Amino acid sequence: MVVKAHAFDVGDYVVYPKHGVGRVIELQEQEIAGMKLELYVLRFEKERMTLRVPTNKVEAIGMRKLSSDKTLREALDTLKGKPKVKRTMWSRRAQEYEAKINSGDLVSIAEVTRDLFRADDQPEQSYSERQIFEAASSRLARELAAMEKTDEPAALQKILAILNEHAPKYYAEQATA
Predict the structure, then answer these.
(1) Percent of the chain, pLDDT > 90?
(2) Which residues are in the CarD-like/TRCF RNAP-interacting domain (predicted)?
C-alpha cells in the first residue's frame, strides 16, 4: 500500500473558493458506490457548515492554503488604490463582482471590497451593492483574521480603517472633476 502525502493536515486553515476560509477538522475514508474515497472534512464556522472534499479533487476545485504574506500585502495595497467603477449595467457588474469573490483570489476580493466601499459621508448604496460589499469584505476579513491569528471583527476593522483613510482623496477628485 502506497501512503500518499496530503496537501493539508488536520487543523490547517484552507480557502475553498466558493465558501472562503475553513478549517480541516478530519481526514476520512468512505466507501461510495463501491469506491474508497479519502476526504478532507472542512468546517466553516461562520456558515455553521461542514463540507467533505475528496482529496483527489482539491486542485480541480481550487482549494488552497491561506495566502502568502506577499499576497496579503498586495491585497491590502489594493484597498488603498483608486476605486474602478465601470459604467456598465449593475446586473453585469454584480455578476463580475460575484465571480471575483468566488474565485477565492485575495487580490480580486480586495478589488471588489475597494470598488464597492462607501464612506459614511458618501451616497447610500443599493441593497444589492451592500450585500456584495459585505460578502467581499467578510471573505477578505476571514482570511486576514486566520493569517494574523485574530478574529473577523478585528480584521474587518483593519480593512475599513484602510478604506476610510484612503478613499476620501478619490472622492475629492470626483467632486472637482
Answers:
(1) 72
(2) 7-117
